[in-house]
Amino acid sequence: MRRIVIVGGGTGGTILANNLARRLRREIEAGQVLVTLLSASPRHMYQPGLLYVAFGKMASSDLYRDEDGLLAPGIQFYVDPVESFDLDHNEVKTKSGVTYGYDYLAICTGSRALPTSVPGLAEAGHHVYTEEAALKTCSALKDFPGGRIAIVTGVPHKCPMVPLELTFMMYDYFKDREMLDKVSFTYTYPIGRIHSLENVAKWAAKEFDRMGVHYETLFNAKEVDGAKRQVHSEEGTVVDYDLLITVPPHKGMEVIEKNKLGASGWIPTHRTSLAMEGRDNVFVLGDTTNIPISKAGSTTHYEAEVLGENLASLATQGRAMRAYEGKVFCFIEAGKDRATYASFDYKSPPQPEPPTRAIHWFKLAYNRLYWNSVRGLL
Questions:
Q1: Could you check whether 2-110+253-327 and 114-248 share the same CATH topology?
Q2: Residue 363 has what pLDDT?
Q3: CATH H superfamily, domain 114-248
Q4: Which residue, of 68, 145, 166, 240, has the fewest CB within 10 Å?
Q5: Residue 376 half-sphere exposure, CB side, CA atoms within 13 Å?
Q6: What pTM does this model have?
Q7: What pLDDT, in 10s, does the model give residues 4-32?
Q8: How far is CA 270 from CA 24, 51, 89, 172, 274, in A?
């Protein structure tokens, strides 16, 4: 019997498990292949929805589904997070003490926002990377009487378009409340342009200029002085604020760091095979990789499809079939009723089109279609 163990029940783990269940249905039914998914939670969260929770456009209860209801028949699912990896002996051990052996292992444990990595940021700033934080941001926006809004971005971070989307959506949020004359926006970014993708940065800068959003580049947050309402940068500059909205720096999950699988929780990963460097039967998906591409749901989705085909082929034929080409597709909410997108891969940079109402509505539709996507129906 070939044993495939998937660690992590988020977007990558769920899509991969369902992909394998579909491709290997006969082998699973015949007892020739066993697919096991180990998750830290019985619930699955649609993480991009947190942005809409922050603006009162989605209820937090709409973010969740039971994980077992998203999985195809034949998948062995356990809510029992992995605590240790013994890659030399092809085993993982869970919190409950159970050891699972494997022939092929896929690690897709995700990432976490760390506002505590910048002194004062957790106490003074708001973000949208947990349900609690998104709800607090929603309250802060509702109660804000006016003043200086700072959008401060750290790297790396999940969902590369979030800093831009937060800015566009806040602009229209206060425009709808007839408060634009009472607020000002300052946007910061750590490198020499306002987004990591050059063409996206060029497009967004024109939009910011049109809106009157001030932006500062080469701004790496060093500390936040909550009493003075100031953010100090490593470069020696200062941004004043009355409301601080942040995109905190991220790390991989603690279990990856504790097991010394990769610095800061990012596992060294081959960019096309998705194999962990130095291992031919361990693979990595989504945010957990150290591949220098967007940590986004679509990245994970495309990777999971490639890995699903390859693992099925390895289990039945002993060889992989496909290479991941760096494909990513990201929606960009550009304000009320307007959105665009960035589509790119290792060879082709993105070329954002002018925002339209149609793309905005397609994005909203995808918020609902996501659940079919992780089931492998899209």
A1: yes
A2: 81
A3: FAD/NAD(P)-binding domain (3.50.50.60)
A4: 145
A5: 22
A6: 0.94
A7: 999 999 999 999 999 999 999 999 999 99
A8: 25, 31, 21, 41, 5
